[in-house]
């Protein structure tokens, strides 16, 4: 690989890491909303998912720093993809958050190498499993919007403007 | 409970558990394989592995 190609690959990887970090910030925020609306019997699952996303977020912060960049910060608030008035909507939001994160990690797998790629694949797998826990429905290609009939919602939990 | 000639346990719960284990092992192998794969193929392998893990979960949940 030429020096220019190596630099371009590093730049792509850094952008994918920052996108994953932004998605994890949004997921952490989103699970805060989920936790406030969901029934008591599923609060343990929300807590576990919330903790998992915080842990992934912290790993990504370190990886971005190691790449010599400043990690993107969380937004003060995020626009939710739909209103979340009750427990049923909270479960739908949780599944949506996981699907969104899965898509970002699939891109990070493509744009990274070695240990970071391995970690991204593991994160995609965890998100896919949590998504079916919430929705009860599996999809053939988690994280691949171009292969999904319905398509994931790219605007899910976008930063509020 | 005797296994059938196909190697699938006669007991339904055990058969599902075995199927889920096989799905997870396949997902693990794909996760290994993707590390050295070209970008888009790695992305596809990661997705297929994730789908397998999700299916394994659905096979074993209650």
From TrEMBL, chain A:
Residue stretches making up the DUF4439 domain: 16-146
Protein name, entry field: Ferritin-like domain-containing protein
Top-level taxon of origin: Bacteria
Transmembrane segments: none
